[in-house]
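Retro notes, item 3 of 5
We never archived the inputs for the NAP complex last cycle. Fixing that now. Sequence and ligand:
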Amino acid sequence: MANQSVPLGHDVAAMNASGWSVVQAAARSAEQLADTNQPAFFALGVDGELRTVPSGDAHALVAWRPGAGWEAVLPEDDPRRAFIDLYLPICSATTARPLTIGHLGESLDGFIATHAGESRWVTGEQNMLHMHRLRALSDAVVVGAGTIAADDPQLTTRLVPGPNPLRVVLDPGRRLGAAHRVFTDDAAETLYVCARSLTRAGERYVGRATIVGVDERGDGIDAADVMRLLRARGCTRVFVEGGGVTVSMFLEAKLLDRLHLAIAPLFIGDGRPAIRIQPRVALGNCPRPHYRVFRMGGDVLFDCDFSSRDEAAGEQSDAQSAVTRVI
Ligand SMILES: NC(=O)c1ccc[n+]([C@@H]2O[C@H](COP(=O)([O-])OP(=O)(O)OC[C@H]3O[C@@H](n4cnc5c(N)ncnc54)[C@H](OP(=O)(O)O)[C@@H]3O)[C@@H](O)[C@H]2O)c1
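Structure as it came back at the time:
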C-alpha cells in the first residue's frame, strides 16, 4: 500500500482537531449502532455528531459495518484519514465486544525509562497527545505502582478534549504512600487495587481512592481478576498505560486486544524494560501479531492487533502490507 504523508503547508493541529471530532463521535455512537445491526455511512454534522449520509456520498467519512465495527471511508488523500484510521478499532468496542489496549513508549533498545525511573520524555509530544486521546476514548486507565511511584501522574485528558477515565492503580504489595495525586485530587474517580490480605476490615479508602482487595495468585494479583472487576463496573474500553511490568502482565495473560508500541529514536542502554514475557525457545513459537505502522512526530507507532488470537506459532503475518503514515 502506498505511503501517505501530510501535504506540506497543511495545518496538522487543525487537521487533528477535525479528525478527533470524528473519532469521538464514532466512539459515542458505537453502542447504539451495534443495537441497530444495520450498515450505515456517516459525515460529521455541524453539532459535532455524526449524521447519516447515503452510501457513496462525497461527504462520508466513516462507515459502520455490523459485526466488524467502524471503517474509514474518506478519500485516501484526505489528510485526516490516517488519524481517524488509527483510532477506529478502539471506537468500535461495545459492551458485547469490549476492548483492552496497552501502550508503551520505548527506546530503540527496548526500554521505557532509565534505571532511576526517568521516562520524560522517551517519546515526543505527538505521542503524549496520543496517550491523552487513548485515555479520553477509554472508560478506565490502568497503571502499575511503579509508574505512580516514579511519575506521580494525574492520568487525566487535560491535553485533549474528552472525558477523564476511571483511574485504576495496581499495587499488589501495597507499597505506595497515600500522597500521590491520583489519591488526593478530585480530577477523576480512582480505584486502588491491592491484595485482599493487605486490607483491613471495614477499610474503604486511601485518600479519595476506593480500595479494592483482590485474591492473591502466586506472587501477585491476576490481571484476569482486574479485568473482571472492571467489566463488572461497565468498563467497555480499558487502557493499560504502563509501566512495562503491568502491560507485560496483561499481554502474557492474553488480555490485550491491541498493543501500541511507540518506538523513539534514542538508546537508553539499560533501564526499565518495555515488554517482558516468558522466553520462547524457538522463533517459531513467538507471537507475531497482525500490525499497522504509523509515523507519530519523530516516533514510529506499531499498532499490534491480538484480537483475532490467530498469531499462530511460526506464521509470518507480514504478508499483510505495513502502512506507513504520518500523523
Ligand atoms: N514510556 C512509557 O510508556 C511509560 C509508561 C508508564 C510508565 N513508565 C515508566 O516505567 C516505570 C515503571 O514501570 P515498571 O514496569 O517498573 O512498573 P509498573 O508496571 O508501573 O508497576 C509494577 C511494578 O511496580 C513495583 N512497585 C510497586 N510499588 C513500588 C514503589 N513504591 N516504588 C517502586 N516500585 C514499586 C511493583 O513491585 P512489587 O510487585 O514488588 O510491589 C511492580 O514490579 C517508571 O519509571 C515510569 O516512569 C514509562
